[in-house]
Amino acid sequence: MFMTASRLVIIWVLMVGAVPLWAQTGNIRGYVRDSETGETLPGANVVMGSLKTGATTDKGGYFVIQNLLSGDYVIDVSYIGYKSRQVKVTVKSDQTTQYEVELDPAMFEGDLIEAVGDRVTAADISPVSAFGTRVTELARIPTVGQPDLMWGIQLLPGVQAASENSAGLYVRGGTPGQNLILLDDVVVYNPNHLFGFFSTFNPDALKDVTLMKGTFPARYGDRLSSVLDITNLDGNRKTMAARASVDLISAGTTLEGPIGERGSWMFSGRRTYQELLNSPLFNHIVDEMFSTRIGTLGGAGTAGDVGGIPGGAPGAGGGRGGGARFGGGQVNFGQTTSSFDQAFGFYDTNFKLNMDLSDRDKISASGYWGHDVLDLSLPSFRGETRDQLMDWGNQIGRLKGTHLYTDNLVGNVQFSMSRYGSNFEIASQNQTDGQGQQIAGGRAFGLDRNNELKDLTFKTDFNLYSGMNHTTRVGGQISSYDAFYKQGTGDTSRSQINTASQ
Length: 502
Prior knowledge:
Layout: H1 2-17, H2 19-22, E1 25-34, E2 45-48, E3 53-56, E4 62-69, E5 71-78, E6 85-91, E7 96-103, E8 130-134, H3 149-153, E9 159-160, E10 170-171, E11 179-183, E12 186-187, E13 192-193, E14 198-199, E15 206-212, E16 226-232, E17 241-246, E18 250-258, E19 263-272, H4 274-277, H5 280-290, E20 293-297, E21 324-326, E22 329-335, E23 341-356, E24 361-379, E25 384-406, E26 409-432, E27 438-467, E28 470-491, E29 496-501
């Protein structure tokens, strides 16, 4: 009888201890969005406070929390710049429940915080290799014209500009060509307007920016300095919206709206206006950049001239007004280009389409076009006229499909094209000889350079979310590069035309 009771107690203890093993579990998944526009919010926190577990949304605003005991819970959803929200969820046995969580934008104001600390040695400082921000933060940076993405990034630690009029990124000593710049996972090869003064990225069309200055994942390749990962807006899923911007250089507009109840679209365009660039200030800048300076040699002078260099008397090629010593005389330089005809402008456009084919399948198409053109007609010395044309630009296109194989396995497939092309043409005509006498026909010279790079890429990747702190990514890509360069010259004085291509 005693043995029988002991056995019953042991069996009861084993059954109670095994209850968690028999308990039914379920999953929850979903998306976190902006309540006003429906834009997904990457990097939002979804936490189940009672269980001290949760997840962070990925680049597409998706989250999944697995292996939860069936029952009712409350999740806390938060994102910087938005009001936190608590949502009641129900976990059903052997099922996955989907939730769409929308957060309201909010402006937070706090008291002044003063932090005082002791100086640490360089060996104790841990380098920060990644920095992420929303593009709306760029609007808070003081600027003369429109906020520019590259100019804002130059203010970050470890990033430096080559000069005050360059949007190029010099990250930890590397050159701009050593940075990988991605727009919707597509490489941008020359992200510059106005000879590098502005970037090609219109802030009105962008949603998310991540800069990685070191130790970036292997999926980004083998660039030496940094990775700048930029994401376009998906578009407003709630209602039609439009906004415009005007600055000292350009004007632009952005349109977005829903596609039924399962999609969205976005179009953004920006262009310079010529009447401003043809101002006296811009003419003076171009005059300084492209003018021709010639020198005249004067006779020998005395050593007492104001120019600081022993030379000729004033008015005879002497040192007054500055110059350079040449032999026994003085060379005075004069700027002969005083008038020219110029036309410069750039434009860029962004678009994006998104469709939810089902709860597990999404498709998107995005693109970018940008172009710069500079046309100059410059009179030069000795009767020579010169016409110069430069144009360059980028074209980008991408088609992407996303499929949820399971609640925690997401697959992406995309095909993309990126093209950069530039063209440089110059033609000069000389109708006079060395003594300024008119000659029949004169001399003509021409130069034409064409450069093009085309990149076709097929990429696939799979993301496995194993928990709050574990994500496994596997993927691969195949790229085809086509580079083209051609140069042609013509010279009537030599009666020859040379052409070379590669």
